[in-house]
Amino acid sequence: MELREKSRGGRPRSFDRDGALDIAMRLFWRHGYEGVSIGELTRALGIAPPSLYAAFGSKAKLYAEALGRYEALSTVGLPEAGEAETLEDAVRQLLEASVAAVTHPAGELGCMISTGMIFANPEHEDVARIVAERRDRYREAIVRALAPWAGEAEAPALARYLIAVMQGLSVQARDGASAGELGAIVEQVLAGLRARRLAGS
After folding, report:
1. Residue 34 is part of a domain; what is its CATH number?
2. 171 with 87, same domain?
3. What is the domain extent for residue 146?
4. What is the DSSP code (8-state) at residue 124?
């Protein structure tokens, strides 16, 4: 979608909606929904508020689109049967991909979804619910992905545990932890899985 907004000289200038969405995504990723004002958005996008509302409807709708854009660009894949021989291999793939994503030099630190809108002003509950629903969908996807190794009975609890680990990795990355330091956390998780497997054998 391309809109046109009048420049100060009166000539219309084109508005790259997709490019604006990328800019908004980075702002929300870095500062959170409540940390970015309409004024900051319009300044970063180079448009007036009416043009922002014409293009996206509202700040909340822009945020929802930015979340979708973030998901589309996410590098955190899910392990698949044939790619991992054991449950430990599958969990390693998942967590190492998470570490790479939250520390990638081309992106912002942390994960926009796993730690987004954890605490929100009551007036933004609808937006917080959108993020929570995306977290739930991702957890359910992890359940399905791990079921071939963990079994359908154990996979839900394991997925919830791994989501908690991934949220912790995201927070640690935001606080400045390096990929190596986060990798050490992953190794601790894997050591726990091995110990549990040995105890149950």
Report:
1. 1.10.10.60
2. yes
3. 76-200
4. G
Total number of domains constituting the chain? 2
Looking at residue 107, its pLDDT comes to 79
Identify the sign of the CA torsion 172, 145, 196, 97.
Answer: negative
Residue 174 lies in a domain: yes
pTM: 0.83
Same domain as 112, residue 49: no
Rounded Cα distance between 130 and 63, Å, is: 10
Interior/surface letters 103-130, b for 16+ CB within 10 angstroms, e for the rest: beeebbbbbbbbbbbeebeeebeebbeb
pLDDT (tens digit, 9 = 90+) per residue, 28-42? 999 999 999 999 999
Domain for residue 22, yes or no? yes
pLDDT mean by block of 10 residues, the chain; 201 residues: 43 73 94 93 95 94 94 77 85 94 88 80 87 92 93 95 95 95 98 86 60
Please name the residue ranges forming H helices in the chain: 17-31, 38-45, 49-56, 59-73, 87-102, 125-150, 155-174, 179-200
What distance in Å separates the CA atoms of residue 200 and residue 97, rounded to the nearest whole number?
Answer: 28
Whether 152 and 187 map to the same domain: the answer is yes
